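Hi R.,

As promised on Friday, here is the backbone we talked about, encoded as structure tokens. Could you run it through your design pipeline when you get a chance and send me back a sequence?
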């Protein structure tokens, strides 16, 4: 889902998995995949990786233009500004992109906005803003293993054999372990320079999203003016406080719709929407379908007999 740019800010892209799909995606980064046109300057509100196996091409992040070299790994944090990409930029390149939300790490992980700042495997992504993606280098002896790990993840997502719902997240976790080890020196610096205001904001959202919660409530909880809070959070993450509150509620709503038989109204109440109609409208705007239809579509995807009948 794309949020249009405003006031000179780049567009922000969100990842909303289709019903029944895992919240992780892989794709090839290579010349010829999209041989014409270009891609606008943009941000994501979810973490990602770009790994390149060979020399060739350019990647624009923040204020930098990087010549791509074999073994380059770009760790893309939520809120990182990715530069305008021309088709010719990837001439001669050969690599993989892996993008995901925190949901991919399991139901016990906190909301996506909080998790990528607190989960130990996501600490290399504790950045955001216009500084651009973190560039790391995979040692040459380890590069074949990196490719094999990503290809195994891609294979599980594409083939969807029995057990892929368990196998794909497991491959992702192992990949993030490799990232954390590679970024060990960087992580120490990041721990010393954490963004305390954002940590406070996301903690308030995590604790209070099931209740009525507004920008003013969050601002009061962290002792800052609503205007200053809005500009700070948007500058560093690409989204507003209210958008993060809604996102956290939608994450939990999807979990409850998929894992329980609670009524739509009760799901709404549990994620901070006492008005069932308002919950349904908000969910519909975010997902392109009603909560009931989303639940039905997810059940059909996960039931092999339902898939056979519908096909």
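Update: got your reply. Pasting your designed sequence below so it's all in one thread:
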């Amino acid at each position: 889902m794309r949020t249009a740019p405003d006031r000179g800010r780049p567009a922000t892209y969100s990842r909303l998995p289709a019903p029944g799909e895992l919240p992780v995606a892989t794709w090839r980064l290579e010349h010829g995949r999209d041989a014409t046109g270009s891609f606008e300057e943009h941000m994501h509100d979810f973490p990602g990786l770009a790994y390149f196996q060979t020399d060739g091409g350019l990647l624009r992040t923040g204020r930098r233009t990087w010549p791509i070299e074999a073994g380059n790994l770009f760790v893309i944090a939520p809120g990182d500004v990715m530069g305008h990409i021309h088709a010719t930029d990837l001439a001669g390149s050969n690599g993989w992109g892996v993008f995901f939300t925190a949901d991919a790490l399991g139901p016990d992980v906190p909301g996506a906005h909080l998790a990528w700042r607190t989960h130990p495997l996501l600490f290399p992504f504790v950045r955001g803003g216009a500084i651009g993606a973190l560039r790391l280098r995979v040692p040459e002896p380890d590069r074949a293993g990196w490719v094999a790990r990503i290809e195994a993840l891609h294979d599980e997502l594409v083939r969807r054999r029995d057990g892929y719902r368990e196998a794909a997240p497991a491959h992702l976790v192992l990949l993030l372990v490799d990232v954390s080890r590679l970024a060990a020196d960087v992580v120490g610096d990041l721990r010393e320079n954490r963004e305390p205001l954002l940590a406070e904001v996301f903690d308030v959202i995590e604790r209070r999203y099931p209740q009525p919660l507004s920008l003013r409530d969050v601002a009061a909880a962290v002792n800052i003016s609503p205007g200053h809070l809005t500009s700070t959070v948007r500058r560093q993450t690409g989204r507003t406080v209210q958008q993060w509150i809604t996102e956290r509620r939608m994450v939990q709503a999807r979990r409850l719709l998929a894992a329980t038989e609670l009524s739509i109204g009760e799901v709404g109440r549990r994620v901070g929407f006492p008005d069932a109609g308002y919950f349904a409208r908000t969910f519909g705007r975010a997902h392109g379908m009603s909560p009931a239809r989303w639940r039905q579509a997810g059940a059909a995807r996960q039931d092999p007999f339902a898939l056979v009948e519908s096909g």
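One thing I noticed while checking it: Residues 196-302 form a domain with the Arc Repressor Mutant, subunit A fold (CATH 1.10.10.60).

Thanks again,
M.
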